[in-house]
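Appendix B. One record, verbatim.
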Amino acid sequence: MRFLQRAVLAVAGLLLVTTLPCSVAQTTESRVQATRLMNELMSGKGVVGGPFTLTDHLGQARSLSDFQGKVVLIYFGYMFCPDICPTDLVNIARLLTLLGKDSANVQAIFITLDPTRDTQALIGPYVGHFDKRILGLRGTEAQTKELATQYKTFYEKVNVNEQQYLIDHTAFIYLMNREGKYVAFFPPGTTPERMATMVREELAQNYR
């Protein structure tokens, strides 16, 4: 059991997108929370995912249930992310291209962890830069925190100075089936080809 706990802690540290050094107090508290969420995700003991209603770039309410019948990919990130988020979004765009006609049965969703700066006017053009088939969604700060925790995504603001901040966060792509149920997550570095294989397998499933 202790070995498992140490392993989970190590994995959590590796999968946390670290953008800036934090104070020792911040790091200790953050790692504990990140480890807890990672343990729940990797053990399969807790419920991952669930319904949500957020706002798109047109100000319209969009819910997970809107995409019933499609395989859904969910990614949490933020527009000011310097490297990891753009890389993952490029991979999602590449995945959609690899799927060809099957991409019509897949909905990719980007959910911002920074609704204060990632405004309604900005989020649409941002995700559209990578692929116009990716839907950008945002909620309130409270909605964001609740939903991220629901999906076992850790994040926290890290101040650069009095006016600027970055966000440390775990970066997973969540695979949801046609009924909106959680299936699996893709960790950072998963190739579009590998994701395409698993998405096609999920598309082939019949749900009644």
